[in-house]
Design goal:
By secondary structure, the chain is an all-alpha fold. It has eight helices and no strands.
Amino acid sequence: MDFILTEKNDQFDKLVQNYLYNVDDDLNLDSALINYVNSIDIYMNGSRYSDGIRIKKLFKKINFWLEHFPEKLYGLYFDKSKQLANDDKRDAFVHSLVDTRDYLTHFDKKNSPYLISDSDRVTYITQIRALIHIYILHTYGIPDNSIWNYYRRFILDRISGD
Protein backbone atom coordinates (compact mmCIF):
# COMPACT_ATOMS: atom_id res chain seq x y z
CA MET A 1 0.00 0.00 0.00
CA ASP A 2 2.95 2.33 0.63
CA PHE A 3 3.79 2.12 -3.10
CA ILE A 4 0.31 3.34 -4.03
CA LEU A 5 0.15 6.07 -1.39
CA THR A 6 3.67 7.47 -1.66
CA GLU A 7 4.49 7.18 -5.35
CA LYS A 8 2.36 8.75 -8.03
CA ASN A 9 2.59 6.27 -10.85
CA ASP A 10 0.50 7.21 -13.88
CA GLN A 11 1.71 4.13 -15.72
CA PHE A 12 0.38 1.80 -13.00
CA ASP A 13 -2.89 3.76 -12.95
CA LYS A 14 -3.25 3.14 -16.69
CA LEU A 15 -2.60 -0.57 -16.20
CA VAL A 16 -5.37 -0.69 -13.59
CA GLN A 17 -7.75 1.41 -15.72
CA ASN A 18 -7.17 -0.77 -18.77
CA TYR A 19 -7.73 -3.92 -16.72
CA LEU A 20 -11.01 -2.58 -15.36
CA TYR A 21 -12.14 -1.44 -18.80
CA ASN A 22 -11.50 -4.85 -20.33
CA VAL A 23 -12.72 -7.07 -17.51
CA ASP A 24 -16.12 -7.31 -19.20
CA ASP A 25 -16.11 -10.65 -21.03
CA ASP A 26 -18.53 -9.34 -23.64
CA LEU A 27 -15.91 -7.13 -25.27
CA ASN A 28 -14.59 -7.94 -28.69
CA LEU A 29 -11.76 -10.47 -28.25
CA ASP A 30 -9.41 -8.63 -30.58
CA SER A 31 -9.91 -5.34 -28.73
CA ALA A 32 -9.39 -7.00 -25.35
CA LEU A 33 -6.13 -8.64 -26.47
CA ILE A 34 -4.84 -5.38 -27.96
CA ASN A 35 -5.77 -3.40 -24.86
CA TYR A 36 -4.25 -5.85 -22.37
CA VAL A 37 -0.96 -6.02 -24.27
CA ASN A 38 -0.90 -2.25 -24.76
CA SER A 39 -1.54 -1.66 -21.06
CA ILE A 40 1.59 -3.65 -20.19
CA ASP A 41 3.50 -1.73 -22.87
CA ILE A 42 2.37 1.58 -21.36
CA TYR A 43 3.13 0.39 -17.83
CA MET A 44 6.64 -0.68 -18.82
CA ASN A 45 7.35 2.48 -20.83
CA GLY A 46 10.67 3.92 -19.74
CA SER A 47 11.79 0.74 -17.95
CA ARG A 48 15.47 -0.01 -17.91
CA TYR A 49 17.61 -3.06 -17.31
CA SER A 50 19.93 -2.99 -14.30
CA ASP A 51 22.74 -1.75 -16.57
CA GLY A 52 20.66 1.34 -17.47
CA ILE A 53 19.78 0.30 -21.01
CA ARG A 54 16.20 1.22 -21.88
CA ILE A 55 13.85 -1.63 -22.80
CA LYS A 56 12.35 -0.78 -26.17
CA LYS A 57 10.87 -3.93 -27.69
CA LEU A 58 7.43 -5.00 -26.54
CA PHE A 59 8.49 -8.66 -26.24
CA LYS A 60 11.31 -7.66 -23.88
CA LYS A 61 9.02 -5.37 -21.86
CA ILE A 62 6.55 -8.16 -21.20
CA ASN A 63 9.29 -10.63 -20.29
CA PHE A 64 10.90 -8.08 -17.96
CA TRP A 65 7.50 -7.43 -16.35
CA LEU A 66 7.02 -11.17 -15.78
CA GLU A 67 10.48 -11.46 -14.21
CA HIS A 68 9.34 -9.08 -11.46
CA PHE A 69 6.45 -11.22 -10.29
CA PRO A 70 6.94 -12.84 -6.89
CA GLU A 71 8.16 -16.40 -7.50
CA LYS A 72 5.13 -18.06 -5.92
CA LEU A 73 2.68 -16.05 -8.07
CA TYR A 74 4.79 -16.49 -11.18
CA GLY A 75 4.52 -20.23 -10.56
CA LEU A 76 0.74 -20.13 -11.00
CA TYR A 77 1.27 -19.97 -14.76
CA PHE A 78 4.92 -20.57 -15.45
CA ASP A 79 7.74 -22.82 -14.34
CA LYS A 80 9.20 -21.03 -11.29
CA SER A 81 12.65 -22.45 -11.96
CA LYS A 82 12.74 -20.61 -15.30
CA GLN A 83 11.59 -17.18 -14.14
CA LEU A 84 14.99 -15.60 -14.73
CA ALA A 85 16.15 -18.13 -17.34
CA ASN A 86 15.27 -19.05 -20.88
CA ASP A 87 11.83 -20.60 -21.13
CA ASP A 88 10.68 -21.53 -24.62
CA LYS A 89 7.05 -21.91 -23.56
CA ARG A 90 6.90 -18.52 -21.85
CA ASP A 91 8.66 -16.91 -24.81
CA ALA A 92 6.20 -18.52 -27.24
CA PHE A 93 3.31 -17.17 -25.13
CA VAL A 94 4.78 -13.65 -25.18
CA HIS A 95 5.64 -13.85 -28.90
CA SER A 96 2.05 -14.93 -29.57
CA LEU A 97 0.66 -11.95 -27.68
CA VAL A 98 3.00 -9.48 -29.37
CA ASP A 99 2.70 -10.85 -32.90
CA THR A 100 -1.09 -11.12 -32.69
CA ARG A 101 -1.34 -7.61 -31.28
CA ASP A 102 0.91 -6.32 -34.09
CA TYR A 103 -1.18 -8.14 -36.67
CA LEU A 104 -4.45 -6.80 -35.29
CA THR A 105 -3.22 -3.20 -35.03
CA HIS A 106 -0.84 -2.85 -38.00
CA PHE A 107 -1.50 -5.97 -40.10
CA ASP A 108 2.19 -6.80 -39.56
CA LYS A 109 3.43 -10.33 -39.03
CA LYS A 110 0.52 -11.95 -40.86
CA ASN A 111 2.73 -14.97 -41.57
CA SER A 112 4.06 -15.31 -38.04
CA PRO A 113 3.92 -18.85 -36.67
CA TYR A 114 2.99 -17.29 -33.31
CA LEU A 115 -0.34 -15.76 -34.37
CA ILE A 116 -3.10 -16.82 -32.01
CA SER A 117 -5.94 -18.58 -33.77
CA ASP A 118 -9.48 -17.36 -33.24
CA SER A 119 -10.27 -20.49 -31.25
CA ASP A 120 -7.33 -19.93 -28.87
CA ARG A 121 -7.88 -16.20 -28.27
CA VAL A 122 -10.17 -16.72 -25.29
CA THR A 123 -7.50 -18.81 -23.54
CA TYR A 124 -4.75 -16.26 -24.17
CA ILE A 125 -6.94 -13.34 -23.13
CA THR A 126 -7.97 -15.17 -19.95
CA GLN A 127 -4.30 -15.84 -19.17
CA ILE A 128 -3.04 -12.31 -19.75
CA ARG A 129 -6.02 -10.85 -17.87
CA ALA A 130 -5.28 -13.12 -14.89
CA LEU A 131 -1.59 -12.18 -14.95
CA ILE A 132 -2.45 -8.48 -14.92
CA HIS A 133 -4.99 -9.06 -12.13
CA ILE A 134 -2.43 -10.96 -10.07
CA TYR A 135 0.12 -8.18 -10.59
CA ILE A 136 -2.38 -5.48 -9.59
CA LEU A 137 -3.44 -7.33 -6.43
CA HIS A 138 0.20 -7.90 -5.45
CA THR A 139 1.07 -4.25 -6.08
CA TYR A 140 -1.87 -3.11 -3.96
CA GLY A 141 -0.46 -5.17 -1.10
CA ILE A 142 -2.81 -8.15 -1.08
CA PRO A 143 -0.78 -10.96 0.54
CA ASP A 144 0.76 -13.27 -2.06
CA ASN A 145 -0.58 -16.33 -0.20
CA SER A 146 -4.14 -14.98 -0.51
CA ILE A 147 -3.69 -14.37 -4.23
CA TRP A 148 -2.14 -17.81 -4.71
CA ASN A 149 -4.94 -19.51 -2.76
CA TYR A 150 -7.56 -17.70 -4.80
CA TYR A 151 -6.03 -18.55 -8.18
CA ARG A 152 -4.96 -22.12 -7.41
CA ARG A 153 -8.64 -23.07 -7.05
CA PHE A 154 -9.11 -22.59 -10.75
CA ILE A 155 -7.94 -24.97 -13.42
CA LEU A 156 -5.27 -22.80 -14.94
CA ASP A 157 -3.78 -23.54 -18.30
CA ARG A 158 -0.15 -23.49 -17.28
CA ILE A 159 1.95 -21.75 -19.88
CA SER A 160 5.11 -23.66 -19.08
CA GLY A 161 6.34 -26.39 -16.81
CA ASP A 162 4.60 -29.57 -15.79
